[in-house]
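ping. complex inputs:
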Amino acid sequence: MKSYLDCIPCFYQQALKAARISGASEEVQREVLNNLSEIIPHFSLNTTPAEMGSKIYTMISKVTGKKDPYREIKEESNKMALKMYPEMKIKMKDAENKLLTAIRLSIIGNIIDFGIEGFDSISEKINKMLRIDFDSQVNSDGEHFDYFSFRQHLLDVDSVLYLADNSGEVVFDRILIEYLVTYYHKNVIYVVKGKPVLNDALVDDAIFCGINHYANIISCGADSPGVVLDYCSPEFIRIFDEAEMIISKGQGNYEALSGEPNPLFFLLIAKCPVIARHLGCNIGDFVLENSLKKKILPIEATESKE
Amino acid sequence: MKSYLDCIPCFYQQALKAARISGASEEVQREVLNNLSEIIPHFSLNTTPAEMGSKIYTMISKVTGKKDPYREIKEESNKMALKMYPEMKIKMKDAENKLLTAIRLSIIGNIIDFGIEGFDSISEKINKMLRIDFDSQVNSDGEHFDYFSFRQHLLDVDSVLYLADNSGEVVFDRILIEYLVTYYHKNVIYVVKGKPVLNDALVDDAIFCGINHYANIISCGADSPGVVLDYCSPEFIRIFDEAEMIISKGQGNYEALSGEPNPLFFLLIAKCPVIARHLGCNIGDFVLENSLKKKILPIEATESKE
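pong. complex structure:
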């Protein structure tokens, strides 16, 4: 996905936010914004927002001297999410359509974002979402919810490459991964970032949240907010290109990969107006977007009740 | 009011918005943002956001070549608001506390902003607000609603200087001005901008909305979004400094004047997080702020029922 002019004011907002989370003084925050003003005129709209984000966060890290300012936030996110794990398991046990429920739980986890919002507020939002009776909702395809093609594709493959997004969210990913492994018997590879960027999950986060019991954990090698292939390791690129099915979590990965020809399924909450417009959906929508947009006819929702 | 770092991302948003309303191509919009990036590093937080806004809109006007891009929007706003005038007069007729009702109507008019929102949406919002039974609400002072000191001050003066904000909003100002003139017998001077800036009211707008039947209309001489005294004419400065009571509409005027020692009463809807924080209120709050914060004890609300 290319960048839009609307991304520019947003870069400033994000840079200020990140500088503050890094504990920078007002002077240093100002330095960050001034440095950004030097970068902006040379920034091509043909680069993805994720790639631009990468440049910005590298600059912020240099200016503030903080390599992993979100570390505590990430640890808290993981703990908060793990507390919700038992309730999610009950939700799965009671669900009529377990695959759809697992997908929805995974998307709910995407609400855990920059960690600026207080944990209480995020936790409350998630609990509210969890209390919704998923089965009472329409369990079929929506305009931006390619559930049937996801399920169809899943039935055709042996393995799934799963691109993580944020810490904490990892626990919600685990629910879906557990189900893909135990019920669909898929081999899952879980991909985290190579170095700290924002609150994105690293190997330690994935292990802390227990992903290692169900999937192999690898790093993409990059520290961009979203898997920007140009910054990834050759090993990861090979795995990515050979993947039969890729589940990609969050906006950053959508920004970085939405133009790629691989069999990608984007799971995210649309959080910004630019992405919502690009997807043609509303802010706050739960999105399951099949990058290939295969013309698969809806099949009967005969999901196992185990 | 000084500027805050949070104003910087907002300047970019506003600049992009203004460039688009000016009908600029994407290349020219980009040029506007790049030019802004040259200005930002030299921008002192000790200047008010209104002063910075003035520099930005002057630059946009130069780059786009459009001197009054909001002209049509302003004309539409005036017509839309005039259609609401009869309903407001009925509201006034039926009101138990007419002064408070006139103040509230004047503040409701402040919802007419940049004109980016469709007129239908603004009109719907206003109609919803008008349907609220003002008398059923608490008619006393609130934390950011210095009604009693406003009324007390009004009783002590012969004349009122009224600083306009947006076109369209002028009709809502007229309701309050009519009441100040006909019931309180005040001399009112209505102050508009000297040259086009955003959708701010000019002399023509004030006349179109019928202010001339109740008040003298003058220009402040400046074209800043908010009456930035440094940019105003010496004639206006003299009138401003001699004013017994100044009613100042909208955020721009609050940004420009909140530090001044004059007897200012700010009437506005808090629309941005920085101003809400500065005032200590919530976004969307109706604000009547007495700049002097005189310690006047609440008096009985014995407003005339005419």
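The mean pLDDT of chain A is 90.
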